[in-house]
Structures are given as C-alpha cells and as structure tokens.
C-alpha cells in the first residue's frame, strides 16, 4: 500500500507554528511511518519498486526545503527518499537515507525547490526490525526549513557602503591570484532550531580545517547541522547569482567536528570529514596582522548569494582604514568593502601577498574584522593552530 498525503494551501501558510522569531523560515509539519506516525511500518514480505508511503510538502515561498527528521530507525536496506516534486526544478539531486547508514535526528540536505516528496521504500526479506533494536521502527518528521537569512553579529548590521561594488567571483579571472584564493571560500547553510542562516567560511591550512565566525557556528550541534558548499558561483561574469542559494556548487560536507569556538574573537574552527585542501587550495593567516592603508579584497557569500568578491569601494580600491575601530569589538580592522548578512566569516585578504589579514564579522560602514594576529596568537596558545595555517 502507498499512503499519500498532500498539504493544502491553507496548511502551508496558515496556522503556522514557526519557531523562528527572526525571519528565517521554519514550518512545523508532522508526518511519518511507524513511531506513532500516519501508518504502521509496512511488512517487508512483498516486493515492490513503488514507494510504500509518500508525502508531499509544498510551499511557494520557499527558497529551498530541508526536512527535519526527529526520529529515524529503519531496517538496514530500507530507505527514505527526498526529491523535488517538480521534474523541471533546478534541484535534480535525489537524496536517499538508508537504515544502515542513517539514524537518529537530522536535517535532510537542502534542495533548491519549493516542493519535495518524501518517500519510503522497503525491500523484501529485510528484517522488520530497525538497526537500533531499542527504538521504534520507522521515521518521524516534525518540521522543515524553507528560508534562510544572512547571519549577523547581534546588534550589528553588515552593510553595503554606498553603491554595491562587489562583483560575481568570475568577474575576477583577470586577477588570477585573487580568483584562485577565492576557491577556498565556501557557502555555509547552518540549520539551527530557530531557523536557517547563511554564513561564509574558508579552508585554513592543509589538514582539512575551515574557519568562520562564532556567531555562525558556536556549538557542536551547529557544526553537525551545517552544509559546506564549494564552487557556488557563476561560471561567467555575466551570470547573475544575486539571490539566496543561487548558482549551486558542490555540497562537500553536511556536518563537521567543532574544534573550538571563541565568543570574544568571534571565530569557530571546525574540521571537515574530508580534507579538501588539495582540491580547493587553502588560505593562510598573516602572523603579523593587517597593515593600515594596504589594499585588501573580500571573497564572500552575501545573503547566501553565489560567491562575490569585493575589491573596490565608491572611492577606489578597498584599503584598511583603521586598525583600532570600535563597535562590535576593540581594535578591529576596518574597511569600506561592501558586505551583507551572510558575509560573516569571510576572509579579508591582502592584495600584496594574498594572505588573510582579518576575519570579517561586523558591519556599520566601515565594516570590521578581527585582526589575523589575534587569531594566530589565540589558536597557537590553545594548541589548535592547523598545519600550514600561517605565513
């Protein structure tokens, strides 16, 4: 038997019990099989290539859909499939979560679509018991996320300073060193209980570490529920990637191990499951820190857009205007390069040596960052400085 439940328009946008009070979209939605769900877990003594259960989630307001499984315990070869409901959608990926590989609570990878189908497939002859024999057999969904906002430090507003002079990353192929450095920069989608947030992060050192802001990732739960997407950029300068989740790249990890997160210096160091430094390169912190008046540039994912690089301001090339700016922290590095929410965690690189001289974290025009020498000093003191992370 296949059970199909379809949400009505009223169910999608009315009577919302969203847990988000800040604008990032979370919608409560309860369904499942077994574990007190819509139907008992089906027997596996008959063979079928059709789903035993299917549930449609649709929301025309969605930029993406990421389903939250509150329980997941299937027989080993049974699986739940999540796919875009519209065959013409840009989200062509089909996600499969098998019992022998997945359990517990988790978010599905975000699909860039406004409607998804969640399907259960079972296999003949498989034991009806879940992989975890102490838990109920089946799966439960309690919500989904469909919008994300650019993360910002509490009390600050990352800003475009006048006109937005940032450009698509591919527009900088004539600056080969800067364009190459931007390869190590990733778009982060962090799925928190109160909603989803975009940030920027970058590979540091050659051991597979990535660094972003503490206000992006502050706990292991945050790190475990973050998508790390590389190459999220247009292939040409004329490609418009100025919308959330646009110009999809490659999601190379859906979780990471938190090494350390520091509130005062607003940084978080994580290690990805796979060392990607050989593929995307890596960036290094300048041990001596930023220099006033030096030219700088800032690769980023503002508002979760495709990758952009800010190199110029309304008055010319971007430079360090101060080493002692106040506001979000003391003695911050300041500049008028354009940023937005979601740019948090971006590297500020020197044009002279392409080393990271600061970690962007706060707005206000001038926008501000934590000086690299402070990060090096703190990570070295804690014994967590990645190999080849400095120069």
TrEMBL record:
Annotated protein name in UniProt? Serine protease
Similarity remark: Belongs to the peptidase S1B family.
Q: Which spans are transmembrane here?
A: none
> Which residue ranges does the record annotate as region Disordered?
1-25
Which gene is the coding source of this polypeptide chain? RXLR73_2
Note the Pfam families from the entry.
Answer: Trypsin_2
User: What EC number(s) is this enzyme filed under?
Assistant: 3.4.21.-
Q: Does the keyword Oxidoreductase apply?
A: no
Q: Which GO terms describe its molecular function?
A: serine-type peptidase activity
Q: Name one GO biological process term.
A: proteolysis
Coiled-coil-forming residues are none
Q: Where is the composition biased (Polar residues)?
A: 1-24
Q: Which organism is it from?
A: Phytophthora oleae
Q: Which PANTHER family match?
A: LYSYL ENDOPEPTIDASE (PTHR36234:SF5)
Check the record and name the InterPro entries matching this protein: Peptidase_S1_PA (IPR009003), Peptidase_S1_PA_chymotrypsin (IPR043504), Peptidase_S1B (IPR008256)
